[in-house]
Amino acid sequence: MRRLHRISGLVAVLFLFSLSLTGILLNHPHLLDRTKTVSSDQIPYTFTAHASHPDTANIHFSGTEKGLYVSYDNGLHFKEVPLRYPSFKVSSIRYVEGSSSHLIVAMKNHLVLESTDGGASWDRVPLSSQFEYILSAKRLPNGDLYILSDTGVFIQTNGTWIHTLRSESTFDLHYLIRKIHSGYIFAPLLIWAHDIAAILFIGLGISGLFIYMKRR
Predict the structure, then answer these.
(1) Domain boundaries in the chain?
(2) How confident is the model at residue 38, as a pLDDT?
(3) Cα–Cα distance measured from residue 128 to residue 12, given in angstroms and rounded to the nearest whole number
(4) Mean pLDDT on 119-123
């Protein structure tokens, strides 16, 4: 029984170590070596969407059949934009009118992402009715965010998204659980709290393995 307990503990430590490490990498995808700069002809996917920076002519975001890329030298070289979500085909990219840092990206499978810091970090737009093509995006005088899409008009008011073709709840349990699990529900403070907890778990796991091996 004691031997079974030790083996089970070892498996649990390895599993916890894996969850902690992958959780940190998911919260900070820029730590992964996926942002190597390459020339445009080295990207193995067809370009499907494009958006140029409204103020800086050299910056371009380009969508492909699998993921999002950015160029800082007018399209000569690109690097992949690290996302916390699957790299689906990018259908459209739009800067919010009047903003040089707020982007909306629509992907196949109805995944809509936004960045409010110029593409440094991305989060899912919690819509109950989805779209794939953005015709325009702008901030209204009252502060609401207005998106005209292929499936109608979406308006974000007081943190809630409304599809004007039919008013409906935007509650998404899967989205809420993902936000809680990653710490993004109270970003960025809770993200770092999750990271610290993960690092502590990794430390406990390594020290536990060390003590176990030393006793043996």
Answers:
(1) 1-29+180-216
(2) 80
(3) 37
(4) 86
